[in-house]
Amino acid sequence: MSILILTACIAFLILQIAWFKINPFIAFIITALLAGLTLGLPIDTLSQTVQKGLGEMLGSITLIIVFGTCIGKLTVSSGAANVIAKTVMGWTGKKYVRLGLMITGFIVGIPLFYSVGFVLLVPLIFSVAHQFKLSKVYLGIPMLASLSVAHGFLPPHPSPMALSSILNADIGLVLVYGIIIAIPTIFIAGLLFSNLLKNIKTQSNQEILNVEEIANEGKLPSFSVSIFSALFPVFGLTLTSLLPFLTNNETALNIGKTLGEPSIIMLISLLICTYTLGTRMNRSLKSVMDDYATAIKDVALIVLIVGGAGSLKEVMIVSGVNNTIVDLLTQTSIHPYILAWMMAAIIRICVGSATAAGLMTASVLLPLLQANNLDPNLLVLAVGAGSLMCSHVNDPSFWMFKEYFNISLKDTFKSWTVMESLVSVLGIIFVFILNSIIH
User: Fold this and answer.
1) C-alpha dihedral sign at 328, 332, 334, 336
2) Is 23 left (phi over 0), alpha (psi -120 to 50) or beta?
3) Looking at the whole model, is its pTM more than 0.85?
4) Could you tell me which of 319, 437, 439, 430 has the C-alpha nearest to residue 382?
5) Burial of 212 by CB count in 10 Å (0-12 exposed, 13-18 middle, 19+ buried)?
6) What Pfam families does UniProt report for this protein, alphabetically (predicted)?
7) Which pLDDT score is estimated for 191?
8) pLDDT value, residue 95
9) Do 166 and 362 touch, CB atoms closer than 8 A?
């Protein structure tokens, strides 16, 4: 009975977001309260349970997401993202132009939110298409596949960060495994798949301008400084995760463990970027702080949505429904990774939000970790892959792609929706391949 109640609550959550267009944060809180009441939690403790779940979730990831957002904002406003894009494109030239766009999308996509990366890089796609007289969709899909994979698989993006927190995964290993899986995924779903899209013609429209303001256009950082600054969180998290394999020195391991805390790494990265991309480029500290204030405003709602998912998770734990789920799921013959991927994919198709789909799925599947002795790092990636499945008309990114590239609805499904579905399917396949290698 408790599973039926939970299923009805999740369906109600999907209905609120998809049909009634209720803000996802509010929808999560309403659903958490409703689930608590119907699952028999004492009414006098229900509010405290919801608040505890929200607080614990926000306490574990807020600093990381906020610092990551600030780094991404400064990467754009300092011109570092443009420097990276132009340098990589200069290396690859016309012959390997799509490979250059794909690499650029992956590098820039790690520190930037998907929508920011999209708006920043689409003008580059249009410029290259005009220069080489090639199809915009043909050129754009490899780059946008890279952005999508980074958004779904790699910390410090909100969904992988929240999933890592819920499932008690190691963020550094999630990042390392995510990069390993991402490379062949974007090569197939981006570079190879785009060969089938050469004949998609975009209708004539005015060129999209880069709407992101570059605050210090007169003095841009070098490519090496731009790469170092934008990707320092990746370097730091990777190094501290691999440190136990490199040394047995207890002092070094303790220092690495402390510095390897994601919030510490992100703070160090932010301070480095404030200097290398800010004050070193003759920008005032106040100007850099104004950028950070804008970035924090932009990410506030996403952080609250993640907190709302934490409330629902706490209600499930306190009510004991998670144990019931374990008993049921352990009797099925479906592999837990496939189950996680399928659940995330179904919710994504219904809701349209990759982040919401991942959070809902992780909250339900948390008990599977203890029951099946699974690798939580790979489970994060399985859920992340499912959350990217079949982007269609209820996903804002679908319409961004259609309107920016000015193509028909049919061609949007043929290109964008198929690419996102390929990313999802390939993601879960490579999760299994990596699982067989590691374990």
Assistant:
1) positive
2) beta
3) no
4) 430
5) middle
6) GntP_permease (PF02447)
7) 94
8) 84
9) yes
Per-residue pLDDT at 322: 66
Which residues are within 8 A (CB) of 150 and not within 5 positions of it... i.e. 6 or more apart? 105, 106, 109, 110, 114, 117, 157, 182
> What is the token pair recorded at 45?
């403790």
> Shortest CA distance to 190 belongs to which of 147, 233, 152?
147
Alpha-carbon Rg for the chain, nearest whole angstrom, is: 22
Exposure letters 391-421 (e unless 16+ CB within 10 A, then b):
bbebbebbebbbebbebeeebbbbbbbbbbb
Residue at token pair 């600093």: 63
Q: Please count the other Cβ atoms lying within 10 Å of the Cβ belonging to residue 352.
A: 21
> Which residues have a Cβ under 8 Å from the Cβ of 8 and sit 6 or more positions away?
38
In 3D space, the residue among 35, 24, 65, 54 whose CA is nearest the CA of residue 299 turns out to be 65
Q: Which two tokens stand for residue 67?
A: 């610092």
pLDDT at res. 215: 52
Amino acid at 433: I
Structure tokens at 176: 């390392």
Of the candidates 43, 32, 41, the one whose C-alpha atom is nearest the C-alpha of residue 9 is 32
Q: Return d(Cα 248, Cα 21) in angstroms, integer.
A: 53
Distance (Å, whole) CA 174 – CA 258:
18
Q: Which residues 6+ apart lie within 8 Å of 212 measured at CB?
A: 76, 77, 116, 119, 120
The confidence band for 330, taking pLDDT boundaries of 50, 70 and 90, is low
- Given a contact cutoff of 8 angstroms between Cβ atoms, the answer to whether 382 and 425 are in contact is no
pLDDT digits (tens, 9 = 90+) for 222-271: 999 999 998 898 888 888 877 887 888 888 888 888 888 888 988 999 99
As a whole number of angstroms, the distance between CA 18 and CA 29 comes to: 16
Q: Which amino acid is at 105?
A: G
Q: Would you place residue 326 in the very low, low, confident or very high pLDDT band (cuts 50, 70, 90)?
A: low
206 pLDDT band, cuts 50/70/90, is very low
Average pLDDT, the chain: 86
39 pLDDT higher than 60: yes
The token duo for 82 is 């443009």
The 10s digit of each residue's pLDDT in 341-370 is 998 898 888 777 788 788 878 877 776 666
420: tokens are: 């996102």
Write the burial class of residue 319 (CB in 10 Å: 0-12 exposed, 13-18 middle, 19+ buried): buried
Rounded to an integer, what is the distance from CA 148 to the centroid of its chain?
Answer: 8
Give the integer Cα–Cα distance in Å for 232 and 138: 31
